[in-house]
Amino acid sequence: xxxxxxxxxxxxxxxxxxxxxxxxxxxxxxxxxxxxxxxxxxxxxxxxxxxxxxxxxxxxxxxxxxxxxxxxxxxxxxxxxxxxxxxxxxxxxxxxxxxxxxxxxxxxxxxxxxxxxxxxxxxxxxxxxxxxxxxxxxxxxxxxxxxxxxxxxxxxxxxxxxxxxxxxxxxxxxxxxxxxxxxxxxxxxxxxxxxxxxxxxxxxxxxxxxxxxxxxxxxxxxxxxxxxxxxxxxxxxxxxxxxxxxxxxxxxxxxxxxxxxxxxxxxxxxxxxxxxxxxxxxxxxxxxxxxxxxxxxxxxxxxxxxxxxxxxxxxxxxxxxxxxxxxxxxxxxxxxxxxxxxx
Length: 343
Prior knowledge:
The protein is an all-beta fold. Helix content is 0%, strand content 55%.
């Protein structure tokens, strides 16, 4: 394509050829076709090279990211249904005190008693009307040292009182109740217990503790005719050693599960708390589920088995007033109770 170049000379326009363009450094080859002078030639320009982005570092298999998404477990002492700033024990404690109370009902599964070798084997559940529910209460206190050592005191009153009519001639030691005799029956078995336990785990979330201790029993079994003319009394005060185990697990929401058992079996003197070779045993075991109501109080539902007894002859006249010292007494009971703990 050509064009005219206009110049001025003496005030007149003169048509001239345009000046020739400088030779191009990259003129097209003849094979590509020739271009006349003055034509505009477009030469393609390659885009600049851009380095590809560096690959992200790969993590080792199973490695956690720099900031883990797993939230730390909260301290069970700070989790509660109704949080409060009130505290009984310092969270950073080395010494702590706990108190518990249980209230509920006791039901007899089976209970048989005999006083004197020639006495009647008496079924206290069926013949003595112990087939009803009895009030149950228990108090306990615990002193904890360095979160692993605990001393536990338990006071357990048991006082079962019923009225019955003798369905047959009954003999307790030297006292006989004829058929049809109205009777008042009392079975008392209060005990006081002190145990020590050591927690295998030093953690507020779970516990597995083993220990040992002792129990003082104060037993009194009385049969009295309503008119007061006949009365048989069998009592016993003795010491029994115990073995102990307790376990507990607290969930992150404050709900917890627990179990504990105290028991012992012996058939020799001293170990059974008597003065002769009397077979004796005690077993006190429970399962419970609880919840942290506040930061200082727990509530729990408790299912307990309470049983034991003795079979043998102690010193004559020692346990059975006016009798030969022989006693057969075995009790099996189930307790359902609601408990509260101050922590």
